[in-house]
Amino acid sequence: MERDYNGWDDLFKQEFSKPYFVQLKQFLVERYAATNVYPPKKLILNAFDNTAYDDVNVVILGQDPYYNPGQAMGMSFSVPQGVMPPMSLVNIFKEINDDLGYKTSIEGGDLTPWARQGVLLLNTALTVEQGKPNSHQGKGWEIFTDQVIRYLNERERGMVFMLWGRNAYAKKQLITNPKHLVLTAAHPSPLSAYNGFFGCGHFSKANEFLKLQDREIRW
């Protein structure tokens, strides 16, 4: 029985058979066997498992998964229940509080409640090696996530793209449909949050846009 990809089937079947993705899969088999790679294999596509294609309201695009043990869960910026939120996520919560005037509805650092409201928590690369940020950059993931963005760009219903950091900003050129709202800012990492993430107002801007379509995210 074939796996149900939550409305992403057409895109995945097309991409999974391409030479770049076949090479990427082989690379991942070798790296998962040789060292610690995150997230766990079964969670690599977790963002898509939790947010159906037709349900996407917002895309939050980060860089690559957390590279410390126990943190990455296949959704950008999210950590499993019981794991202390990393500083990037703490900064996201701070901006929500400053922007909206109330604390996030999230308890802990698991952002699954956002994903189930149609927030696709995507990274430009979907795997990383322990202690080595960007270690799986240039292996094929960027081609795949480019295709994800293009696939979403074609959709008729408008959505919000939040592009945080240089790697995410590079995807801006792929979003050509005028029905979508594109928001850019610095990455929420402690190294860059004060260079344009704090004060970006992305969460209120997203909800203002979505309310025009009778939708809203409970951040």
Mean pLDDT: 95
In angstroms, what separates the terminal alpha carbons? 37 Å
- Side-by-side strand order of the widest sheet: 3-2-5-6
Oligomer: single chain
Describe this structure in words.
There is one protein chain. The protein is of the alpha/beta class. 34% of the residues lie in helices and 11% in strands. It has helices at 9-16, 19-34, 46-50, 87-100, 112-115, 141-153, 166-169, 202-211, and strands at 37-38, 58-62, 119-123, 128-129, 160-164, 181-185. The strands form two sheets. It has a four-stranded parallel beta sheet with strand order 3-2-5-6. 37% of the residues are buried. The mean pLDDT is 95.
